[in-house]
Amino acid sequence: MKTCVEAFTLNLLKRTAAGKLPLWLSQNFLVQAFWQRLLKERNAATYRFYKFIYEQVKKHRSALDVDNPGDFLGS
Q1: H/E/C letters for each residue in 2-28?
Q2: Residue 31: CB partners within 8 Å, gap ≥ 6?
Q3: Which end of the chain, C or N, has fewer beta carbons within 10 A?
């Protein structure tokens, strides 16, 4: 029986272009280099976004007041 993660991964792979391409094409280093070059700006923006979120979480943790329920997410 598949685990939940395996089932999710397989379902996601079926919905992407990589699931429809032959392995020799999707795992070719030239094709991967092409996609990396094409998506360089998106990857840089994603990195900046995650870095911003990480810094905000660190800042929030340092000022966290355990006795104040308003400091916790979802409250």
Answers
A1: CCHHHHHHHHHHHHCHHHCCCHHHHCC
A2: 25
A3: N
User: Phi first, then psi: what are they for 19, rounded to 5°?
Assistant: -75, -15
Residues whose CB is less than 8 angstroms from the CB of residue 60 and which lie 6 or more positions away in sequence, other chains included: 71
Q: What percent of the chain shows pLDDT beyond 70?
A: 77
Structure tokens at 51: 């870095």
- Asked whether residue 8 is domain-assigned, the answer is no
Segment 53-73, tens digit of pLDDT = 999 888 888 877 777 766 666
pLDDT tens per residue across span 15-24: 776 667 776 7
**Residue 50 pLDDT:** 92
> For the chain, how many structural domains are there in total?
1
